[in-house]
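Researcher: Sequence recovery benchmark, item below. Answer with residues only.
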């Protein structure tokens, strides 16, 4: 049933995201072409500036859309009038919540990837200019740089970014579920639901910052006990090339803690929707 819910959620949300992605990609491609042409045609400078401004606005629009639309979909479908229909489906509240969370996470990840891709498209003119003017020493420097990274980091050059990506995905999913939990708490009130949800969000943020500080301190102490690089817990990037054990322990520990927070937020949301549902 979860796959069916996700399918229908994708079908409903793609009508909003696909046009937004198309506009952002089109602006990036057109801006890149204008950047190439503007080297010979100065009169294209003003249209190019307007296109770049429109592209930057589209980046912000996609980011805001991914965040706000996720909130609106959850609130309207499960806590608003549409909830009377949604909770008559042969699905558990947990399946409804996870379908929303997983689809929102996927859209946010796709939005992030497309933002990086479009930025790469904008850099094509600069790359072409660099390639056309580069001499042998430039390419030799690039080759030596990659060779140095490969020899110094070894397998860490692959595993470390993978852990960062996993942490990013888990963090996005936890952010979605965290907002769902706050909205569910706000839904317990008959009046001022939004204010109650914002209050819950602030309270959760304070508790999370306290827990994070304690874990950071205890993680440094644990690293000292294990004879690892404790500095990695306070600045893990500082120890990428020196003392990787502490940095790995930090990342893996942070992934586990974030997953635990995701579980707690889910349990809160699922309990409220299952036992104390208060549709508006």
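Model:
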């Amino acid at each position: 049933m979860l796959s069916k819910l996700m399918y229908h959620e994708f079908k409903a949300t793609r009508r909003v995201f696909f046009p937004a992605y198309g506009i952002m990609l089109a602006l990036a491609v057109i801006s890149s072409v204008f950047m190439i042409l503007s080297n010979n045609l100065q009169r294209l400078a003003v249209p190019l500036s307007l296109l770049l401004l429109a592209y930057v606005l589209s980046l912000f629009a996609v980011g805001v859309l991914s965040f706000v639309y996720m909130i609106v979909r959850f609130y309207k479908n499960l806590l608003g009038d549409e909830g009377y229909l949604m909770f008559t489906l042969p699905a558990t509240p947990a399946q409804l919540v996870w379908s929303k969370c997983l689809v929102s996470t996927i859209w946010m990840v796709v939005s992030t990837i497309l933002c990086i891709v479009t930025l790469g498209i904008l850099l094509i003119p600069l790359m072409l200019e660099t390639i056309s003017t580069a001499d042998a020493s430039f390419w030799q420097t690039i080759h030596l740089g990659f060779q140095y990274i490969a020899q110094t980091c070894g397998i860490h050059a692959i595993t470390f970014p993978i852990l960062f990506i996993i942490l990013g995905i888990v963090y996005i999913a936890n952010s979605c579920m965290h907002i769902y939990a706050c909205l569910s708490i706000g839904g317990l009130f008959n009046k001022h639901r939004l204010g109650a949800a914002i209050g819950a969000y602030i309270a959760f943020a304070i508790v999370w910052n306290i827990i994070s500080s304690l874990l950071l301190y205890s993680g440094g102490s644990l690293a000292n006990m294990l004879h690892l690089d404790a500095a990695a817990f306070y600045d893990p990037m500082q120890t990428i090339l020196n003392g990787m054990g502490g940095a790995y322990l930090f990342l893996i520990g942070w992934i586990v803690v974030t997953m635990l927070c995701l579980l707690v937020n889910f349990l809160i949301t699922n309990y409220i929707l299952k036992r104390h549902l208060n549709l508006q």
